[in-house]
Design a protein that fits this description.
Elements lengths: L10 E2 L1 E3 L2 E3 L3 E6 L6 E7 L2 H18 L4 H17 L1 H12 L3 H21 L3 E7 L5 E5 L6
Parallel strand pairs: 1-5
Antiparallel strand pairs: 2-3, 4-5, 6-7
């Protein structure tokens, strides 16, 4: 595959709370059709997995206090970053899964579209037809349930 500079068998760390960490163990990632090693990745142990779950729950709790516009902007930033690296990510998906490149490109495009839709609906309010018992309008706001 041309342009596969990003796919090498050098050991790659795992990411936890924005920091790269080496694991005590590594595992090769191989192409499903010819078993070529495309990467060697760090593997999290139980303690590292527990720490990751704790960190994401802590971060999500803090995000609840962010203004809706800031949460939407964060989703837009992730979508733009993903879109900017779309070709590279599609190559990685193809190498790891054996999926045809055009299907991997579609998968990346769907991820970008999902993030953009989430950003658009982050601050959405909807007026419902019904009125409350006291005659006021009912408004709803969609919010994520959590990590």
């Amino acid at each position: 595959m041309e342009g596969m500079d990003t796919i090498t068998p050098r050991p790659r760390p795992m990411w936890l709370a924005g920091r790269a960490e080496d694991g005590d163990d590594t595992r090769p990632v191989t192409h499903p059709h010819d078993a070529t090693e495309i990467a060697t990745v760090a593997v999290a142990d139980t303690a590292t997995t527990d720490r990751a779950v704790t960190e994401v729950a802590r971060f999500a709790g803090g995000m609840r206090s962010w203004p809706v516009a800031d949460r939407a902007a964060a989703l837009d930033t992730v979508a733009e970053t993903l879109a900017g690296r779309g070709d590279e990510l599609a190559e990685i998906v193809t190498a790891e899964s054996g999926k045809p490149l055009r299907h991997a490109e579609t998968e990346v495009a769907h991820a970008v579209a999902t993030l953009r839709a989430g950003a658009r609906s982050a601050g959405e309010t909807r007026h419902l037809d019904g009125r409350t018992d006291d005659g006021g309008l009912t408004l709803t706001r969609r919010v994520p349930r959590g990590p």
